[in-house]
Amino acid sequence: MGAQLRTERLLLRPALADDAEALHAIFVQPAAMAYWSRPRHTDIAETRDWLSGMIAIPPDQGEDFIVTLDGRVIGKAGLWRFPEIGFILDPACWGQGFAREALEAVIERAFTVHRLPHITADVDPRNQRSLALLARLGFVETGRAARTWQVGDVWCDSVYLRLAVRQ
To answer: What is the pTM assigned to this prediction?
Structure first.
C-alpha cells in the first residue's frame, strides 16, 4: 500500500476498489459535480471505471488520495498528474475546513517528497469556492482560457493557477 497522510482530523490514503460505492455517492450529486471535468455519474460502472484510473496512476506520474474522516470516505485530493492538483469533497462536508486540511497535506508532500518546483490547478471560473480556497493556500492566477473542457454538451472555461515551492 502507498503513502498515507494524517492531518488533525483526516486520513488521506491510497484508493481501493472498495471505495467505489462511497465515491459514487459523491459523484451522483449535482452540487459536487457542478464544476468537475465530467458530468455527474449515472451508474456505479462509471465510478468504478474512474476509480480504476485513479488506482492505476503510475507513481512517477501522480499521487492521488482518498480523503476519509473517522473512517468514512468524504472525497479525494491529490496530484492526479504531476504537477496538477485536484480535489472533490462530499457537499455535506463543505465549509468545515476539510478541503484546506487535505490540500495542505498534499502540497507539503508534493514539495518535500516529490520535490516538485510548483503545483498547478485548472479551475472553472464559476467555481468561486475552489478559487478562493486555492488563493488562501497561496496559488496565483497565471491565465485564463475559454472553452477548454466540454462537460456533457456544455463548454467550460478555465482559470489556471500556480503555487511555487516555498523558499
So the answer is: 0.94
